[in-house]
């Protein structure tokens, strides 16, 4: 299936990222979450990591590792 980068920004809707990631994983996709600092005020990296089964990135430099 697809490798998906799920971007999460700082709004109250950020908590929906967990639902979206869960649905994508259930459909067999590989999900990588990238969060802004403000997004982490609404949803924890541990939650997204547990659901997606991949590390959660919160710094742009971390994303470059994923894209290599």
Structural class: alpha+beta
Shape: globular
Low-pLDDT stretches: none
What is the tally of helical segments?
A: 3
The largest pleated sheet is described as: 2 strands, parallel
Radius of gyration over all CA atoms, rounded: 11 Å
Integer average pLDDT: 89
Alpha-carbon distance between the two ends: 19 Å
How much of the sequence lies in strands comes to 15-25%
- Number of E-state strands: 2
Description:
With 68 residues, this protein is α+β, with helices and mostly antiparallel strands. Helices cover 40% and strands 18% of the residues. It has helices spanning 16-26, 45-52, 60-67; strands at 3-8, 30-35. Strands 1-2 form a two-stranded parallel ribbon. The radius of gyration is 11 Å and the shape is globular. The model has no long low-confidence stretch (mean pLDDT 89).
In short:
This protein is about 40% helix and about 20% strand. With about 70 residues, it is of the alpha+beta class.
Provide keyphrases for this structure.
18% strand; 68 residues; alpha+beta; single chain; two-stranded parallel sheet
